[in-house]
Design a protein that fits this description.
The complex is a heterodimer.
Chain A lengths: L3 E4 L2 E4 L5 E7 L7 E6 L6 E5 L3 E2 L7 E6 L2 E6 L9 E6 L7 E2 L3 E5 L1
Parallel strand pairs in A: 2-11
Antiparallel strand pairs in A: 1-3, 3-8, 4-5, 4-9, 5-6, 7-8, 9-10, 9-11
Chain B lengths: L2 E5 L2 E3 L5 E8 L8 E6 L5 E7 L7 E3 L7 E6 L4 E6 L8 E8 L9 E4 L3 E5 L2
Parallel strand pairs in B: 2-11
Antiparallel strand pairs in B: 1-3, 3-8, 4-5, 4-9, 5-6, 7-8, 9-10, 9-11
The chains are: A mainly beta, B mainly beta.
């Protein structure tokens, strides 16, 4: 089983700041890593797939990088609507895939 | 516009059964693999099950639900189902229906999700 560990658990930042979220896999997942945004009471939203490809309609301020076991989601300049929980997900051994435990991005 | 609307959640006793539905619109339903993903209270996302596109010949399940849950699809009605039997307390969660990102073959990434339906297993 591939375990994804996200850090930090909570990130407190202000609008306009840069956010850097990390996801580490227990073994290599190549580039098969995705990022989702999830707000309470809403449907999760695919942001990034295959480590660095932005999904349809996702603003350019969201970017992904990494390969193997270490991945990063960067939000270049936070907008008020970006505060949410972010999950990474791997599909290297699909099925099953697995999700990380999430990083909560909160307003400072 | 892609829309996914889940229904069928509710309160059920341990050992009971429930059938979830997901009505899809805005895309060619039969051409995409579909999945169920759940979120237990205060927890993260957990993949539950996936069914292949077209005739749904291939189905996949998380170990935690294998043998108890059955995924199916009715392409004539653009609807996805999840039959849940022998329910346990740990199955309590919001269940999301999700569309695969890739046409025809399952990628394991989900580009559209529903709003979810709450399943509570309790006596």
């Amino acid at each position: 089983e591939i375990v994804l560990t996200q850090s930090p658990a909570t990130l407190s930042l202000s609008p306009g700041e840069r956010a850097t979220l990390s996801c580490r896999a227990s073994q290599s997942v190549s580039s098969y890593l995705a990022w989702y945004q999830h707000k309470p009471g809403q449907a999760p939203r695919l942001l990034i797939y295959d480590a660095s490809s932005r999904a349809t309609g996702i603003p350019a301020r969201f970017s992904g990088s990494g390969s193997g076991t270490d991945f990063t989601l960067t939000i270049s300049s936070l907008e008020p609507e970006d505060f949410a929980v972010y999950y990474c997900q791997q599909r290297s051994n699909w099925p099953p895939g697995s999700f990380g435990q999430g990083t909560k991005l909160e307003i400072k | 516009e892609v829309q996914l609307l889940e229904s069928g959640g509710g309160l059920v006793q341990p050992g009971g059964s429930l059938r979830l539905s997901c009505a899809a619109s805005g895309f060619t339903f039969s051409s995409y693999a579909m999945s169920w993903v759940r979120q237990a209270p205060g927890k993260g996302l957990e993949w539950v099950s996936t069914i292949s596109a077209s005739n749904g010949a291939n189905t996949y399940y998380a170990d935690s639900v294998k043998g108890r849950f059955t995924i199916s699809r009715d392409n004539s009605k653009n609807t996805l189902f999840l039959q849940m039997n022998s329910l346990r307390g740990e199955d309590t969660a919001v269940y999301y229906c999700a569309k695969d990102r890739r046409y025809s073959t399952s990628s394991g990434n989900f580009d559209y999700w529903g709003q979810g339906t709450l399943v509570t297993v309790s006596s």
